[in-house]
Amino acid sequence: MELLITIGGKEIIIHSSIVNTVLVVILLSLFALYVNSKFKSADTSKKPVGLQNIVEILVGAVNNLVMTTMGENNFKFAPFIFTIICFIGVANLLGLTGLTPPTSDYSVTFSLALITFFITQIMLFKTRRGLGGYLKSFTEPFVLLTPLNVIGELANPISLSFRLFGNIMSGGIIMTLLYSALGYFAPIVTPVLHGYFDVFSGLLQTFIFGMLSMIFISGATEE
């Protein structure tokens, strides 16, 4: 689903991945507002049930994962990790509806990886107490490794984004080819494959992206 808009006599095509990215953001925002209203009116003296129970389990699972992976000092990053996991998870599962997953567009996955990259660099700058310590960290353990350290740091967002992009895009291509090849028989075969490419692989790549983000950020906060 692409959008065609005209500005100043020029036609601008907005790719479906961008449209679907906005759709995911709107859906998650509306869901967050709904959950917030439910929690405000919930009776804290009673055992949580239904949606409240599910949300508490998810939040608790992510909090425990952040605490285990990043440590208590970095627990402040739990909301960021939870947000990025929710976005990528829903974006990956969007393929089940027949829409193009936003994460099958490299510009989306690279933007997500850049967020983690900039957080990592900011924390590295703070941990090294200024520009001097930040630059010096690239010369460790000895100065001859400086080029490799710089390249390694710049390669992190590229590898992080390509891993997510490659898996989601390849799954979408395979499913498209199968629908074209099987024709009327596609509904018989494709549900199982949707379970693998959209659900299993999508959630697995969500977990990997979140885990690597935590590892990169926690590594930057070590003294």
Automatic annotation (TrEMBL):
Give the superkingdom in one word: Bacteria
Check the record and name the HAMAP family matching this protein: ATP_synth_a_bact
Give the main location.
Answer: membrane
Q: Which InterPro entries does the UniProt record give?
A: ATP_syn_F0_a_bact/chloroplast, ATP_synth_F0_asu, ATP_synth_F0_asu_AS, F0_ATP_A_sf
Instruction: Give me any GO biological process, just one.
Output: proton motive force-driven plasma membrane ATP synthesis
Give the UniProt entry's GO cellular component terms.
Answer: plasma membrane; proton-transporting ATP synthase complex
Q: What is this protein called?
A: ATP synthase subunit a
- One GO MF term: proton-transporting ATP synthase activity, rotational mechanism
Originating species:
Tissierella creatinophila DSM 6911
Keywords in alphabetical order, please.
ATP synthesis, Cell membrane, CF(0), Hydrogen ion transport, Ion transport, Membrane, Transmembrane, Transmembrane helix, Transport
